[in-house]
Amino acid sequence: MPSHPPPPRAGECAWELCTPAVPGALAIIQLMGDIDYALARLGIAPVPVGSVARRSLAQIDTGLVARWTPTIAQLMPHGGIAVTRSLLNALESAGLSRASPPDLRLMFPEADDDFEAHMLAAIARAASPLAIDRLLAEPARWREHARGLRPICPPAVARLLNHLIDPPLVVALGPPNVGKSTLLNTLAGRYVSIVADEPGTTRDHVGITLDLAGLVVRYVDTPGLRPDADPLEHEAQSLALQIAHQADLVLFVGDADAPPP
Fold this sequence. Notes:
Blueprint: E1 13-17, E2 24-26, E3 29-33, H1 35-41, E4 51-57, E5 61-69, E6 72-76, E7 78-79, H2 81-93, E8 97-98, H3 104-107, H4 114-125, H5 131-146, H6 155-162, E9 169-173, H7 180-188, E10 206-212, E11 215-221, H8 231-245, E12 249-252
Parallel strand pairs: 1-8, 9-11, 9-12
Antiparallel strand pairs: 1-3, 2-7, 3-6, 4-5, 5-6, 10-11
């Protein structure tokens, strides 16, 4: 007979962030355990099982709450850095703990060993098509390493390969009207960002996931940087610079009349 996990104890609930910790249209935070207790601690009105409702989320943001089962729910606030961080802090303050890493051998019982279980977990997360063949070969490499037949991958190479699983963040910075939004639309192959021959057209960052020949990246188009920005533009530019500090790659964009910053 298959074993089933015990029901959660009353007053116990854990959380995990299911979306990358970078700006996006939406963040997803999963709650697991005593959902009614968790919602009450956060000041969120109850949500029936099997429904999705619009709720005030701990007085931080207004978003969606999806109650999938009696013990699993998801909070879906706007995906800005400040909103997500504030909501995660509210979860901790409410006494909800971050979920511990799962037992991969239980999650993937078909795996022959721990190496294969980790490979299957990585494939489930991998965003880039280029990752699949590499990951399928990893268990054999690790078995050879365990027998002393292969050296471990250097940390610098491992960091680069991890970008095949977790998409790197690419941020475009530059003055207004140098083609940043046109570049994004061209890479995306569709209309994503507003294009106009007028400073300040992009007044906030625009984020999109791009598949660049099998490597998936998170690409952020930012407002043009100019000293005479109005207060709204200045706030958007400050946020863009914060995002750029977290980027794996910053594209400094310019033209003959307005060189890159």
